[in-house]
């Protein structure tokens, strides 16, 4: 009887954890997806395929982690893909056309991303604009600059010395994925161990209440936009190193996928709820789905449709969980 009661308690605790955290639930779903994919396709667990999955996951994951920070304060940035692309193109042109030291160019590329993010933050906070509308506009600005300076052509001839950042691995693990994990650890440290992290959640719950408490809301929002610009530039530069060229198509689907990854991982669209680690789990779900589509020879155009379906299901799961939780609390109060 004792063992049975212990097993029952463990099972109840497990179910409660799934109900309480979207991130935990999605982690379990991800594991189930990986098991099914490895059984159905003999190629899924191939080392080359796994490295490809991790490499693709790194880019979506990095952007998703950055986007999750903005979602935590109740905002978003739809220009992340164009910031990544423009930073990569400017860096590539400095390397190839100007002939600057490649490593100096990479550092400047990160600065470009930081500046673009800062511009977004200042425009939104100073002019009191809606973040979605403002970043849609800035997406057009950055995309237009991309086309003007490149005339739609790729910047080729990226130095071989830097390409290992996007192409090589440390043991079996691709370097971009290692960098993605480092970014996640830095972000987790900020949100969990610093005052700024506590302020981020406070702002997401209520900007007005945060201002009353003396939190410099606009300063923190600008800081987050700048940091997201930096992360976007980092992802863009790594992708340039992976391709060996800077192309205007880099980051086209990153805005949607980054928001999708965050929502799937349990980060609330209304702010104040979630964990940036969930964005990486959400990115993994999207990446595994896309990989399965490729392995089974399904038309690649279905990737966007499937990603959209997954987002809707994730949002629905979150809403249903909230409704169930509210109804349960009402019953407890009535009793």
3D architecture notes:
It is a single chain. Helices cover 79% and strands 2% of the residues. The chain is globular and about 75 Å long. It has one domain: ABC transporter involved in vitamin B12 uptake, BtuC (Orthogonal Bundle), CATH 1.10.3470. Mean pLDDT is 88; it is low at 9-20. It contains 14 helices and 4 strands. With 335 residues, the chain is mainly alpha-helical. It has helices spanning 2-20, 22-40, 47-72, 80-98, 102-126, 131-150, 160-167, 175-193, 195-205, 207-212, 217-243, 254-264, 276-295, 302-334, and strands at residues 155-156, 169-170, 173-174, 245-246. Strand 2 (169-170) and strand 3 (173-174) form a beta hairpin. Helix 5 (102-126) packs antiparallel against helix 11 (217-243) and helix 7 (160-167) packs across helix 11.
Topology (elements, then pairings):
Elements (H helix, E strand, L loop, with lengths): L1 H19 L1 H19 L6 H26 L7 H19 L3 H25 L4 H20 L4 E2 L3 H8 L1 E2 L2 E2 H19 L1 H11 L1 H6 L4 H27 L1 E2 L7 H11 L11 H20 L6 H33 L1
Antiparallel strand pairs: 1-4, 2-3
Helix pairs in contact: 1-2, 2-13, 3-8, 3-11, 3-12, 3-13, 4-5, 4-6, 4-11, 5-11, 7-11, 8-9, 12-13, 12-14, 13-14
